[in-house]
Amino acid sequence: MIIAIDGPAASGKGTIARRLATHYGLPHLDTGLLYRAVGAAALERGVDFADEAALAGIAASLDVAALDAEALKSGAVGEAASRVAALPAVRAALLRLQQDFARQPGGAVLDGRDIGTVIAPEAPVKLFVTATPEARAVRRHRELAARGEAVGFEEVLADIRRRDERDSGRASAPLVQAADAQVLDNTTLGVEESWQAALALAERAR
Ligand code: C5P
């Protein structure tokens, strides 16, 4: 069983994906981490964000087993990730790895922006998890504060809007809802309610 979870930044898709993976006993891949790792390496090595070939080279040589989720969660890395994610050669370099993960024999849960549309269009369970930019900014702002990153709310909201625009507006695998995805808008839902709603949708689709 492949479970594909897509949605914009800070929609809660990651939490839902992790819990679904635990619930069904499936391996989970947060595909945003792949783009974050490429973005972080580019920042670290001072690679020009216009140098598509160099960035694709970084993507092709990623050591997925060594990805450190905590170190990759900062706002600056998220911004770098969304820039490198707009480059077709970077996406191409990460395609096979994601497809192989999705198609392992027992099934898998993947979350990202293009899982239901590009990586695993055949997935029987597809959720599109979303919420208003304001609701997502409240969550992200709280998360960053908990990590000790003191950023103003307005700045977080502006970041979210810029990322939405870049992720939805790019030509290569933009963030769009798959025609056969079930939408979960959790703007007014708490974490637990959002999880219950996601589980009900997954149970119905599988
Ligand atoms: O989900 P997360 O915020 O960690 O993703 C970081 C960035 O990686 C996103 O803004 C998006 O541009 C990119 N991404 C993508 N396709 C995916 C997952 C993430 O383009 N499947």
From TrEMBL:
InterPro entries: Cytidylate_kin, Cytidylate_kinase_dom, P-loop_NTPase. Coiled coil: none annotated. Residues 3-201 form the Cytidylate kinase domain. ATP binds at residues 7-15. One of its GO terms (molecular function) is kinase activity. It is found in: Cytoplasm. Its EC number is 2.7.4.25. It holds the Pfam family Cytidylate_kin. Keywords: ATP-binding, Cytoplasm, Kinase, Nucleotide-binding, Transferase. It catalyses: CMP + ATP = CDP + ADP; dCMP + ATP = dCDP + ADP. SUPFAM superfamilies: P-loop containing nucleoside triphosphate hydrolases (SSF52540). Belongs to the cytidylate kinase family. Type 1 subfamily. HAMAP family: Cytidyl_kinase_type1 (MF_00238). This is Cytidylate kinase. It comes from Ancylobacter koreensis. The lineage of its organism: Bacteria, Pseudomonadati, Pseudomonadota, Alphaproteobacteria, Hyphomicrobiales. The gene is cmk.
